[in-house]
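Reviewer comment 2.1 asked that we show a complete input and output for one of the modelled complexes. We chose the pyridoxal-5'-phosphate case, as it is the one discussed in the main text.
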Amino acid sequence: MKLFDVYPLYDVTPVSAKGIEIWDDKGEKYLDFYGGHAVISIGHTHPVYVERIKEQLDKIAFYSNSVQNPLQQKLAQKLGELSDCENYNLFMCNSGAEANENALKMASFHTGKSKVIAFTNSFHGRTSAAVATTDNPNINAPINKQQEVTFLPLNDFEAFEKAIASDHYCAVILEAIQGVGGLDEPTTEFFQFITKKCKEHNVVLIADEVQSGYGRSGKFFAFQHHGIEPDIISIAKGMGNGFPVGGILIHESFKPSYGLLGTTFGGNHLACAASLAVLEVIENENLIENAAELGTYFKEKTQEIPEIKKIKGKGLMIGLEFDFEVAALRKKLIMEQHMFTGSAKNKNLLRFLPALNITTKDIDVFFEGLKKAL
Ligand SMILES: Cc1ncc(COP(=O)(O)O)c(C=O)c1O
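Response of the prediction step:
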């Protein structure tokens, strides 16, 4: 059997990794400034992470959600404390798309309505309702197009007010910092405006923190830069540092009932052990503060490179915009400088999404490599 060929691959075969360093099958070293698409939050093979998963594997890796699993409670407790979201309840699943799928489903259950407002350049995943709220017709199959979604431009107060007043929406979903789309953000005024309007119209506000959450923006959640409180928060990527895990934080005003949501694998023992290890390291190594400080350092360093036209994002979720398409530059960075970076729907944008424990020295190395590649 062959693989279903959907990924255009770079000719690099990583076989081991430590922190931001990756080695390929030929013994060549690469630097990971992409975090495997914002997934690596605490660095590859962090010793605490490896130990916690191994310990758990020796005990029990999985049992279904029909029995007690105190690790889930422990995780919910710790996540509530570190994120300052103790007035939410946690439902665990396995990926970002699944998190958003459940968030949208909850919004529909809660309000009895079905239409959704999403934003231009959004990315919320590839499953049914999640992909329908993703602004990319190429990845929406006819079956996904049954979902009624209105796409609005970010920060357009008038368009938003008109839309939300004119129809029966169950949810507004948005990324506090757009990832795949290219690092555009709602302003604080817009975020506060839509929060208020959602309340007025009984519409559930979903903050998709799949990419921007877990400290990446310099706060636990990126919406926390704007002084608002969403109804549902979706999480994944950085949560497991590579272990497939996701979840939604559902405001305590939403009442659960048996069978309303469910999953076979979500919240299994290994996923909890990985997620707990991530939180332990984030806390003990002050990684949220590090992301904020290094984000500032990174932005200062960009002044050394006149080719950079615009800097977008917060903390260690950064986009560098050039006045040319960056595909060739990105390839050069990987093949010649041995540095991984990310692309975006905005073809002029290079994405920088490293582990949250990088140092100023790592950033200096990145800029040296970028100067050479330019
Ligand atoms: C903001 C956002 N939401 C959802 C997803 C989907 O996550 P997954 O690929 O884990 O399904 C992504 C993935 O890139 C994302 O960036």
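Residues 95-97, 100, 123-125, 175, 179-180, 208, 210-211, 236 surround pyridoxal-5'-phosphate (CB under 6 Å). We note this here for comparison with the apo prediction described in Section 3.2.
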